[in-house]
Design goal:
Elements: H1 2-12, H2 17-31, H3 35-50, H4 55-69, H5 78-90, H6 95-99
Length: 100
């Protein structure tokens, strides 16, 4: 159910988006990983890098998303998850490392 709320929040009430994201991450940690967790954790990684400047923690979350994508039943989330992984993992990396 978080997926439905999370996907419409940026258009309906952008100020609630970070709160809904954090609530979804918290629910995933408490109740277990679902297919919505990939999107929620990816956005959490974006928030850590972009808003809070926590690049290392953002990359750690990206590693967690990578593990989630390996779980059975996550194939339909791979394209969105991989895009997020690429953005987060290159965020803050030296330019030379990104060009290789």
């Amino acid at each position: 159910y978080f997926h439905d709320i999370h996907s419409c929040t940026p258009q309906a009430q952008p100020t609630l988006f970070p709160i809904i994201t954090l609530m979804g991450v918290q629910a995933s940690v408490k109740h277990g990983i679902s297919d919505s967790s990939v999107t929620l954790f990816t956005w959490f990684g974006f928030m850590l890098c972009g808003i809070f400047g926590q690049l290392k923690r953002g990359r750690e979350i990206a590693n967690a998303v990578e593990l989630m994508l390996e779980k059975p039943g996550m194939k339909h989330k791979k394209s969105r998850g991989i895009f997020g992984l690429i953005v987060i993992k290159t965020w803050g990396s030296p330019l030379q490392a990104s060009l290789r």
